[in-house]
Amino acid sequence: MSSEPALALRVEQVGKRYRLGTGVHHNLLAERLGAGLRGWRRRHGEDAQDFWPLRDVDFEVRRGEALGLIGRNGAGKSTLLKLISRITRPTTGRIESWGRIATLLEVGTGFHPELTGRENVYLNGAILGMRRREIDMRFDAIADFAGIDQFLDTPVKRYSSGMFVRLGFAVAAHLETDILLVDEVLAVGDSEFQRKCLGKMQDVAQEGRTVVFVSHNMHAVQRLCTRVLLIDGGVIDDGAPDDVVAKYLDEVDPSQTGAMARIAPDAERQGSGEARLTSVGMSTVSDEPTTSLYLGQPFVVTMTYDVRAQIAEAAWEVGLCTADGERIVTAQSIDYSAPTLPLATGSHRVDVEIRTFLLPGDYRLEIQLHDAAKEATIDCVQRALRFHVLNAAEHGDDRYPWQSVRGYVRPESTWTLGAEMETKA
Amino acid sequence: MSADVQRTVTEPAQRWELPPLRQLWDYRDLVYLLARRDVAVRYKQTVIGALWAVVQPVSLAIVFSVFLGFIAKLPAPEGVPYAVFALAGMTMWLLFSGSLMRTADSTLSSVALISKVYFPRVIIPLSAVLAPVVDFAVAFVVLLIALAIYGVELQVNLLLTPVMLLLALVVALGAGLWLSALAVRYRDVQQLVPFTIQVLLFATPVLYPLSQVPDHVQWVYALNPLVGVMEGFRWATLPGADAPGWMLVIPAVTGTLMLVSGLLYFQRAEQDFADVI
After folding, report:
1. pTM, whole model, 2 decimals?
2. Which chain B positions have a beta carbon within 8 Å of A130's beta carbon?
3. Domain A255-389 is found in CATH 1.25.40.10
4. Residues on chain B touching A18 (C-beta within 8 angstroms)
5. Could you say which of A18, A29, A110 has the minimum Cβ distance to residue B186?
6. Domain formed by A7-250, architecture
7. Could you point out which of A284, B116, B180, B253 has its C-alpha 20 to 30 Å from the C-alpha of A41?
8. pLDDT tens, position by position, A67-90
9. Residue range B74-89, pLDDT digits in tens
């Protein structure tokens, strides 16, 4: 064996077919008998209602890797996880795994509402593949992680949803497994708890065990994973988290190709309409198009406008918003008493260089054009361009050090520690 | 690669295979914990708790004594009051019907588990068949008390009770495996099972002695594997009952056949449970 870490998973030519209309829906015997003849014909011919959520999937995972699976809804990520975990079998191909697998598709699978927290820890642990002896050994650590000591002998139906989730994750987190499969469980629970979970999964990965993690939270994926697969019915891309995530985010919005988005005349927009944004792009200050920015990297937003009626005093506003569209900071062309600009009819291009320190995450640009004389908005496009800030500086010397991002902007700050204050007697 | 790392290969569904016995052994604690859950949950938030395991067979035995023993004047074997005869019948019957019902229903009541986590699915019916054994044990103690109260002599045959219990469980599990696997695809099973159990109550000598069945149809009648189980249990617990003899062969043979074929069928059907359920 070479010095490379051993394989944890090998997925070869795996495909999964669901037969819509046959079998699956014929759950009453009568329907089944009635469908017998049609079913026979179908099975012996190409079925128009065959549906392959996954086809020809090939990849390997080495021990100690933290693999992220990303992709749009319905891309087959969860199906892939179910195949690896053996919840369902592949239609074609084969999956080999080395070591014990634990699956966490849901927090608290098999929890019974009438049983106490303690009883459910044992039941849930056994469902996830632990022996009673192992649970005995880890029980205190589990209770401690969940932080619900005083409720251990209360039926879980009396638990708040937060307590339920904490206990469920605590059990799974303390599994002694070689491969941990996790599907979007971080979508539940408060942010404090999410951070705890991510931390625990990082520990698992650092102990040399293997983690396969499905999430829509790109941030969590980038922080946890050492490698990411972009899934869409198969493996579309396979590589470093930042690259694959950036590629995925570019693909989410079809109007956005590369670092440029065409804004159609009928795109969602507000304003009086004498001028319309037709495209918006982003690039570095050295003119390389990109929507993946390094930490603290300045960037240039390029806008083109189709102007139908002359505007005497044009003023621009570029808003940096969260992925949800909430405005964080605003750059305006007439800040610092810069003059308004007269705009003649025709096609025009405007560039703005923006220097701000955004924390790692996904963002959007909102672009507005105002008529300063009339104090009216001419054109406003709220979701003009999506971009992304990586958790790495361009030259590798700066890195956002915390596990979870608090806020969106890092201000420059200087800290001074004063002398000890006098305390009152 | 170290030799102790277990390699698992998942391939497209196979036609027939037996359950993975080694893996089942690894999961033995889960069988126990699921069965314990079923027992514990049943009497949670009830006032009299596990006393229900006593109330059910006793009250049924009283009801049948009144209506069948006293009013319809069904006979019991010599030396045994009808009430005790009915209680013995009920004790075994509730075990069988409980095990069969729970096993048949086990897969559908475990949808959340089946679609969210992998473990050998056969554990689900396996643990379901065991839960009613606890009720049986309680009811059996009540039966012994009733025997003492009525001054019925205890039999040496009593030592063979576990054999009869095992036979009943094998038959219930064999049928339950088929039904629980079929139920995932065909919900008809849910309708069929309670109805079938009612019919079986009449087709089995639970409330009347086997001697009431005309001789010339007994051989057809005894094809019902429960006839042997019930007669065997009565023979073990009550005096004056005939040794079941060849009648025990039927549940032993059909039970084993159903169990093996049930395991095979279940294992085959199990492979697409998560897609169909």
Report:
1. 0.72
2. 29
3. no
4. 275
5. A29
6. 3-Layer(aba) Sandwich (3.40)
7. B180
8. 999 987 778 888 999 999 999 999
9. 887 777 888 889 999 9
